[in-house]
Amino acid sequence: MRVESLFSLQGKIIVVTGGAGLYGRPIVEALAEAGGTVIIASRDVSHSEAVAAEFRRTGLAVEACRCDLASEAEILELRRLVLARHGRLDVLFNNAVGRAGSGLFEMTAEAWEATMRVNSTGLFLASKHLSEPMRERGSGSIVNIASIYGMVGPDFSIYEGTPLQNPANYAFSKGGMINFTRYLAAALGPYGIRVNCLSPGGLRTPQMPERFVAQYSRRTLLGRMAEESDIQGPAVFFASDASRYITGANLPVDAGWTAI
Q1: What are the C-alpha distances in Å from 130 to residues 69, 79, 101, 177, 248?
Q2: Is residue 147 within 8 Å of residue 226, measured between CB atoms?
Q3: Which member of 46, 180, 199, 251 has the greatest number of CB atoms within 10 A?
Q4: What is the pLDDT confidence band of residue 102, given thresholds at 50, 70 and 90?
Q5: CATH ID of 3-154+167-205+231-259, from 3.40.50.11540, 3.40.50.720, 3.40.50.1820, 3.30.930.10
Q6: Is 170 a catalytic residue?
Q7: Residues forming a β-bridge with 13
Q8: How distant, in Å, are the alpha carbons of 43, 159, 257, 259 from that of 223?
Q9: Domains of the chain by residue range
Q10: How confident is the model over 34-59, as a mean pLDDT?
């Protein structure tokens, strides 16, 4: 098999939850460019459809479906729609995230619980229900999008002098996602399903304060924040046969943040 064919996603049906968001959009683009048919699953279906339409104008196979991960009924409906349209599901990216809340001392129980309904219970239900077609076929790949803040504690100094902060519930849920990846890999491995995790560092956006960008960049070994293309290669790798002998792994995509 030629190396380039290992990275091909031709014929693969892929669901990306939160696929119109910060990390989701470049991931969707990369998966579609690699030949996959990608379904953006999001509770904001109008925005997702606009993003999907933009990609379709460039010749990419991208669709949109509504799915609020806080609702088990909507997760089941997403599965029904994907199977009705395509008859199969090959890859799931658990990327959607709820970040309601603030710092430790300002966080309320209500904000914490609302976030966990998506980040914890929604992750569990999506993995359970959307892996079913993969279990029946005896193959598949699940990729969880976690964070460096699921691996290490926050460096609060990078937020000094900016309005940005690091929500406590985000760190809790991403740490749980990383170990849930290992659990799923053990549970689903006998069905031929691989489960891996990407833990990205900060992705630079035009809206970020320059002070934050500078403070964050100095903290990395490569001296910069992530660009969209930095997450695209690892995403295709874990979705494709290029990683077919890897499961239960967590890959930091962080310019060395977690290495020191």
Answers
A1: 12, 6, 28, 16, 18
A2: no
A3: 199
A4: confident
A5: 3.40.50.720
A6: yes
A7: 37
A8: 36, 17, 10, 14
A9: 3-154+167-205+231-259
A10: 97
